[in-house]
Q: What sequence folds into this?
C-alpha cells in the first residue's frame, strides 16, 4: 500500500522511542492517517478509532448519574477523551497521560483532535502514572485528593495480559481493581479497551469486585486487511 510519510515528532522516553507520524495512503484516496509508535510496536492509528469511541459511549451509557465526572486513562490521539466530552451529561473530564510528549502533541496542535480537547473548559490533561494513581489512597485528581468519579475509562495496555510494562499487571488483579472501584461513586463504571477477545479470567476478577460485567465485542472495518477486525470493551458497574 503506497504511502507518503512525514515524521512529526520523535522522542526518547522511559518506555522507548516514541514517534508521531502522518502518512497519506494513496490506496485509500489519499486519506491522511496519524500513527503513534513506541519502539517497534504500533500504539494507535487514526485509521482505527471506532473502539476508542465505543469505549466512551458504552462505558458512560452504563453510569448511573445525570451529571458525570470522568477519568480517561491514556490520552493517545484523543478519540476516547473527545467522545466522552460529546456524551450528554459529562461535566468534567480528567485525562491522565504518563508521557509528557503526548500531552504536548495536543497542546501544540500536532494531532487533529488536540485543539478541541485543549479548548474545552471541562477537560484537563494531566501528566501522571494512571496505575500509580489508581493504587494510591489520594486518587486520580491530585488537586482534589480522594475525589470520586462516575466513570473510569482505560485505554493504555493492549489487553489485561498484553502489557506495555510489567508493573501494570497488578492493576488487573482483584486487589488492583478494588482500589480502582474505591475511586468510583456508587453506581459508577469502570470500562476498558482490549485488543484481545474476551478473557474469562479477567471477567472473573471483574465480577469479584463489581456488581455486573459485560464484555462487548466491537467490530470495525479494516481496509488494510480488506475485511473486519474486532476488539473488546469491558464494562463493569459498581453496586
A:
Amino acid at each position: 500500500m503506497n504511502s507518503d510519510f512525514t515524521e512529526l515528532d520523535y522522542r526518547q522516553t522511559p518506555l522507548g522511542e516514541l514517534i508521531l507520524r502522518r502518512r497519506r495512503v494513496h490506496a485509500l484516496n489519499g486519506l491522511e492517517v496519524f500513527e503513534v509508535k513506541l519502539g517497534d510496536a504500533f500504539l494507535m492509528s487514526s485509521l482505527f478509532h471506532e473502539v476508542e469511541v465505543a469505549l466512551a459511549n458504552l462505558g458512560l451509557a452504563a453510569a448511573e448519574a445525570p451529571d458525570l465526572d470522568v477519568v480517561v486513562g491514556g490520552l493517545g490521539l484523543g478519540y476516547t477523551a473527545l467522545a466522552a466530552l460529546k456524551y450528554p451529561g459529562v461535566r468534567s473530564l480528567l485525562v491522565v497521560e504518563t508521557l509528557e510528549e503526548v500531552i504536548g502533541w495536543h497542546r501544540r496542535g500536532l494531532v487533529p483532535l488536540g485543539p478541541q480537547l485543549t479548548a474545552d473548559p471541562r477537560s484537563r490533561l494531566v501528566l501522571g502514572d494512571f496505575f500509580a494513581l489508581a493504587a494510591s489512597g489520594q486518587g486520580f485528581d491530585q488537586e482534589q485528593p480522594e475525589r470520586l468519579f462516575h466513570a473510569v475509562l482505560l485505554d493504555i495496555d493492549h489487553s489485561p495480559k498484553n502489557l506495555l510494562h510489567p508493573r501494570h499487571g497488578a492493576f488487573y488483579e482483584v486487589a488492583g481493581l478494588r482500589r480502582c472501584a474505591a475511586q468510583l461513586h456508587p453506581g459508577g463504571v469502570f470500562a476498558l479497551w482490549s485488543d484481545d477477545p474476551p478473557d474469562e479470567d479477567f471477567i472473573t476478577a471483574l465480577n469479584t469486585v463489581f456488581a455486573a460485567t459485560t464484555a462487548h465485542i466491537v467490530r470495525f472495518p479494516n481496509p488494510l486487511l480488506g475485511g473486519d477486525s474486532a476488539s473488546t470493551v469491558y464494562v463493569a458497574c459498581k453496586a
